[in-house]
Amino acid sequence: MTSVPSNTDMRARLDAGAVALGLHLTAAQLDQLMEFMAQLQKWNKVYNLTAVRDPQEMLTHHLLDSLAAVAPLRRHVTGLNGQGGGASPVRLLDVGSGGGLPGVVFAICCPGVDVSCVDTVGKKAAFIQQAAAVLRLRNLHGIHARVETLTTPFDVVSCRAFASLPDFVNWSRSALAVPHGVWLAMKGKRPDDEIAALPGDVDVFHVEQLAVPGLDAERCIVWMRPQPGAAQ
What we know:
Layout: H1 7-20, H2 27-47, H3 55-67, H4 70-82, E1 90-95, H5 103-109, E2 113-119, H6 122-134, E3 140-144, E4 156-160, H7 165-172, E5 182-187, H8 192-196, E6 202-210, E7 219-226
Parallel strand pairs: 1-2, 1-4, 2-3, 4-5
Antiparallel strand pairs: 5-7, 6-7
C-alpha cells in the first residue's frame, strides 16, 4: 500500500519545484500555495472544481504547472513597469479560471499584479472569492460573467486549458487593454493548427517552452497581441 505523503513532504516538493523553476518564494507564499491546495481539495467535493483528486497530482498538474508560468509573467510585468507603468498595479484577467488555475497562483506569487478570475459558473467564481478571503489576497477577485461581456481593460489576459486560441482571443478581445495588452495562453504541445487559425490581426510574438518539475509532458505559453492599428 502506497503511503500518503505528509504536508511537510508536499511542501518540500513544492519548494523544490519552485526553486527548479527559478522562483524564490517566501515561506508565506509557500504557506498560501499549500492552503490554496487544501481549499481546492475541500471545496472540490461540493463544487467539482477539478477532475484531479489526488493531492500529489494536484501538486504537479495544478500548482507546479501554474508556477511554470510565473517567471515569464513576472518578466513581462517588469517590462510593462519599465515602460512607464507602475503608477497603478498591472491588471490580469484569467479566463475560464475554474478552480483558480493559474489565477490564484499568479495572485500569490505576483503580489503587485491585480488578478481577476472570470468564470461562467457561479460556484467557481464564489470559490475564488472564498480563496481570496482565506488567503488574505487583496489582489484577487472572482467574477461571475461571460468574458465577452467584460469591457474593463486588462494588461494581460490569460487562460489555461480554456479553449482554442481563436475562440480565446475572439471572446476576450473586448477586455484587452489597448495598445499594450497581451494574451498569455498556457498550452500543452505547441498548437500550430490553432496558431494558423488565428485572426489575421493577431500577432503571435513568442511561443515559450516550459518545463514543469515532475511532469513528463510538453508545455508552452503562446504570447499574442493585436497587430498595431487593429480594431478592438
